[in-house]
Design goal:
Radius of gyration: 20 Å
Number of helices: 9
Strand content: 15-25%
Number of strands: 8
CATH superfamily of the largest domain: GAF domain
Structural class: alpha+beta
Distance between the termini: 40 Å
CATH topology of the largest domain: Beta-Lactamase
Amino acid sequence: MAYKPEVKPVQSVYHALQLFEVFRNAENKDEFGVTELSKSLGLHKNNVFRLLATLASRGYIEQNLNTENYRLGIGIFNLGQKFVNKLGILKLSRPFMEKIVSEVNESVYIGILREGNVIYLDIAETQLPVRVISRVGKDVPAYCTAIGKVQLAYSSEEEINKIYMGARLKRYTDLTVTSLPVLKKELKQVAAENYAFDNEEFENRVRCIAVPIKDYLGVPVAALSVTGPACRMTQERMEKEILPVARKYAREISKRLGFQEA
């Protein structure tokens, strides 16, 4: 049965989902104490403890016996893997991601767009000693990532407004675009060129270039990005060396999804 907005949510389930979102939104923290979670959720500590105990009994939460704090359990990982495995595009894309790495020797991501965020699903990593920390499993604002912008670019004006109108575009670096009109102008250029850059907009000293993966309707269902340290990812190298390779294999994946170029 489809969810109806007027149906009152089950409070215990609602609070469990809120708890998981605390972990998801924590950038540099993997564990929380009961008191911290109580403050974040606005619930009494006894309620939070019972919630944690219930989730721990099913393996979705576990306690660190050394710190007595709580962290996500193996059940969450298994659930996430189940979701990822259902996305056949990952199995299809992996060989081509590895080919890109073998040709340009930089790390390659595949990611999807969900409600204004990019979810990084997989990475084929370079073996170079200096590399960017993996973003797999993280969701990152689309407006400041190449892999996000190259998918946002195919959204309508109405869809862009729905995502960002009235929202504050957070500044992550000095180069982050925080103006909606400027972002819209950039997205028009991305749509015309069919690729996007992230020039240290989300992380300092990290640059990316991304190309879309399209389905049989010509709709971007995912994107590939080549990511590396800014010292190696110069504008000239991204445009002349990396872009042709990324485009070539993104086309191959798209063809296998039924996309036909005009």
